[in-house]
From TrEMBL:
Keywords: NADP, Oxidoreductase. This is (+)-neomenthol dehydrogenase-like. GO terms for cellular component: membrane. Belongs to the short-chain dehydrogenases/reductases (SDR) family. Signal peptide: none annotated. It comes from Tanacetum cinerariifolium (Dalmatian daisy). GO terms for molecular function: oxidoreductase activity. The keyword NADP applies. It comes from the Eukaryota.
Amino acid sequence: MSSKILNTLSKRESMRLSNGFLRDLKANKFLRKYQNTLVNLVHPGFVITDITSNTGELTSEEGAKSPVMVALLPDDGPSGDRAMSRC
């Protein structure tokens, strides 16, 4: 299989698992108990790093934008959402 096909399959599976995890977490007692806690999933995108054999599409700086944006959300920001290179 080509690396492009494997990458597409990996992204699809990763998204499916992330969505399932987030859905389960929303229904979880944890969020009901700690109602002031924001829980969001962040995917930085396909970043050029050693782990991707430098085949990524984004620089490290570009990949860092989404995680930093979510980390700096205000206390009344969104929760139970997914951020994927939205910056």
